[in-house]
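Appendix B, example 12.
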Amino acid sequence: MSMQQFGPGPTLVQVGNVTANEAWIVTPAGTWPIADVNVTSVDQTSTTTHTPAWAIILVVVFIWFFFLSLLFLLARETRVAGYIAIHISARNGQSYTEQVPVHDAQQRAVVLSRAGYLQALIGHARAIRG
């Protein structure tokens, strides 16, 4: 569906399959006026830390220097995995949930900031409407 079919204006934000401009929000479940929807985001990611494989290999290689090689075990690697659920519900009772997969901390921050911007667009549209 092109932007011209649901209203004038360029796309301001896109989160997964959800697209929005100043007046409309488009999802695979339907197109609604942006002032008539509520958006919530649920962060369902997990962050874990591990000892990287290179550190374990260096410990084995430098085992003759016992205390020095143990310092390699202090190295840590952070992994982020999961998804962020963006739930959009319209006043007419329809709703849509987009689950955006996340593979690192930067991508997680981008998805959450886009969801926040989408919420700001909704607030702005409601303020204009009165």
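DSSP finds four helices and seven strands in the chain. Residues 76 and 106 are 18 Å apart (CA to CA).
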